[in-house]
Design a protein that fits this description.
alpha/beta, AB_hydrolase_1, hydrolase, 11 helices, seven-stranded mixed beta sheet, about 260 residues, Rossmann fold
Length: about 260
């Protein structure tokens, strides 16, 4: 573990070569990127943090906003001596990537935004996220995981790994992230300002972030590519790793031609 401003951040630092940083979503952990580790190491250096409150990082109760997650990642990379890298994230991880680019654009060589969206939360969404935070603290992660299983992973796809991550997530950390996401800003202007190679990826069957949202993001980002992963819902990197990895490889080859 590495101490990040009093928060110990667990992480994997695997392989060698061009650095790639991948940020997990809610309520997952760094192991969601195992299919990408298997494909891209060796040849790349993959750095996979557990966000504060998730995985093996210490639980942080209260509220954790996206800008705090982004600064945690920047501090971790400073300590690892990694200045520039390709940065990718899925769902909440994608929103953290947007905030990281807002704060530290000079550090980012390429961007992966998977199954995510840039908009600020609606008033209804603010209430829903805070209500869900209260529920996770009251009930734990199990009932929530059972409810959303087939929105995370399309029917017929293997959901065992996804379910294990969700049920093992600390409720306090997940609740803190939900309260922080309820206060997120609009990242539309951030997307318009991205000047590095960018891939927007989305599962064809994703109900949380529909294909139409991914198409809108692609249109906002100058020169961005869009990959729609057939047969996948919200976790295409796990559900359809070959297709996801092929699209991601095209981005990496563009950055490091």
């Amino acid at each position: 573990m590495v101490s990040v401003k009093t928060v110990l951040t667990a992480y994997e630092d695997i392989g060698s070569g061009n650095p790639v940083v991948l940020v997990h979503g809610h309520p997952f952990d760094r192991t969601m990127w195992l299919p990408q580790v298997e494909r891209f190491t060796p040849g790349h250096r993959l750095i996979l943090p557990d966000l504060r409150g998730y995985g093996d990082s210490p639980v942080v109760a209260g509220k954790t906003t996206l800008d705090v997650f982004a600064r945690d990642i920047a501090e971790l990379l400073d300590r690892l001596g990694v200045r520039q890298f390709v940065l990718g994230g899925l769902s909440m991880g994608g929103q953290i990537v947007m905030d990281f680019y807002r704060q530290f654009p000079e550090r980012v060589l390429g961007v992966l935004l998977a199954d995510t969206f840039p908009g600020a939360e609606t008033p209804e969404g603010v209430r829903a996220r805070n209500d869900m935070a209260d529920r996770l603290l009251r009930e734990g992660m199990g009932p929530y995981a059972d409810e959303v299983q087939w929105k995370m992973v399309a029917p017929g796809n293997d959901s065992e790994h996804v379910m294990r991550m969700m049920k093992n997530a600390p409720p306090e950390g997940a609740a803190a992230a939900l309260r922080g996401r309820a206060e997120r800003p609009d990242y539309t202007d951030v997307l318009r300002g991205i000047t590095v190679p960018t891939l927007v990826a989305v599962g064809r069957l994703d109900e949380y972030t529909p294909v139409e949202e991914a198409e809108r993001m692609r249109a906002l980002i100058p020169g961005a590519d869009l990959a729609v992963i057939e047969g996948a819902a919200h976790m295409p990197n796990i559900e359809r790793p070959a297709e996801f990895n092929a699209a991601f490889e095209r981005l990496l080859n563009t950055v490091w031609a």
